[in-house]
Fold this sequence. Notes:
A: 12 strands; 0% helix; B: 116 residues; four-stranded antiparallel β-sheet
Amino acid sequence: AQSVTQLGSHVSVSEGALVLLRCNYSSSVPPYLFWYVQYPNQGLQLLLKYTTGATLVKGINGFEAEFKKSETSFHLTKPSAHMSDAAEYFCAVSDLVNQFYFGTGTSLTVIP
Amino acid sequence: EAGVTQFPSHSVIEKGQTVTLRCDPISGHDNLYWYRRVMGKEIKFLLHFVKESKQDESGMPNNRFLAERTGGTYSTLKVQPAELEDSGVYFCASSPSALSSYNEQFFGPGTRLTVL
């Protein structure tokens, strides 16, 4: 069975500071891992994904995440937060039949 | 190219009433998924259509929920009768035909359902 744990339902960072959103997963098969972002009144938008190959994946808007199998983690980072990054972020794992399992989400606040 | 659209964006109904949510996937996408997020909880899978057929409906909460996808285009999700615990945001997603081992899912903006 697949599941996702996102530590911290709310994270606040200062503008320009490092963003770190944590995600740990469990999966009985090699996982496909994703980060989605939801801006207010919009749908879920794919930030980045890991399927195979390089474990450090880069996404849109300067975000990146590293797949660490030994730690069963897929944490999302961005070196310097921008006000426009304020949104809700969801980590997800997918199995071979493309059913997605999401975490509970992390709401990111950026303080000017 | 238009994305996944959902209607309505918000719905407020009383317990016992019926509500029908609609999802229009990206044109040409055979796969259509419904998900639900209850406040503060994770987004949970409800069911998966491949064209007009239900591929997996293991996430449907109970028989008060009925999903259809006539003609393999848009889909509706009906809740009848609605209960308080049905409140949440209902997301729809679509993806192309599964010609590879993985398909990215494209999500709609969701329908926020409030049952009073």
